[in-house]
């Protein structure tokens, strides 16, 4: 598969509750520290290589950005790298924080 899928905040929360997914947050470091989905991995150009080496290709990945736009390009890229199930979360973190709990880094 070389395409990603869209996923809602509610469906993301459901998959996360079942611990069946990796959340890849592509926002800048300061935004990630200010608030992110619990357990999310901060994915940047600097950490991309390590991410690809460490995450199982069969594990579902949900890419999160600010509003659900930038995550689509990143999700497409991960799908092209061979990840089997890649999603872009519609509405991004701005939509998540309206409906779901999130955590902040201790140094934020």
UniProtKB/TrEMBL annotation:
Q: Where is the Rhodanese domain?
A: 17-101
What PROSITE patterns does the database record attribute to this sequence? RHODANESE_3
Q: Which HAMAP family match?
A: Thiosulf_sulfurtr
This chain is encoded by the gene named glpE
Its main localization is cytoplasm
**Enzyme's top EC category:** transferase
**What GO CC annotations are associated with the protein?**
cytoplasm
> In UniProt terms, what function does this protein have?
Transferase that catalyzes the transfer of sulfur from thiosulfate to thiophilic acceptors such as cyanide or dithiols. May function in a CysM-independent thiosulfate assimilation pathway by catalyzing the conversion of thiosulfate to sulfite, which can then be used for L-cysteine biosynthesis.
Active site feature:
65 (cysteine persulfide intermediate)
What protein does this entry describe? Thiosulfate sulfurtransferase GlpE
Organism per entry? Arsukibacterium ikkense
Q: What is the lineage of its organism?
A: Bacteria, Pseudomonadati, Pseudomonadota, Gammaproteobacteria, Chromatiales
Question: What Pfam families is this protein classified in?
Answer: Rhodanese
Q: What is its EC number?
A: 2.8.1.1
Named from the GO MF annotations, one term is: thiosulfate-cyanide sulfurtransferase activity
């Amino acid at each position: 598969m070389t395409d990603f899928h869209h996923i809602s905040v509610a469906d993301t929360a459901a998959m996360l509750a079942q611990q069946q997914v990796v959340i890849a947050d592509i926002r800048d470091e300061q935004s990630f520290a200010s608030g992110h989905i619990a357990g999310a991995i901060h994915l940047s150009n600097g950490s991309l290589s390590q991410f690809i080496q460490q995450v199982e290709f069969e594990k579902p990945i949900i890419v999160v950005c600010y509003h659900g736009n930038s995550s689509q390009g990143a999700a497409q890229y991960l799908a092209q790298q061979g990840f089997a199930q890649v999603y872009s979360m519609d509405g991004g973190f701005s939509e998540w924080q309206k409906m779901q709990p999130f955590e902040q880094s201790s140094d934020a």
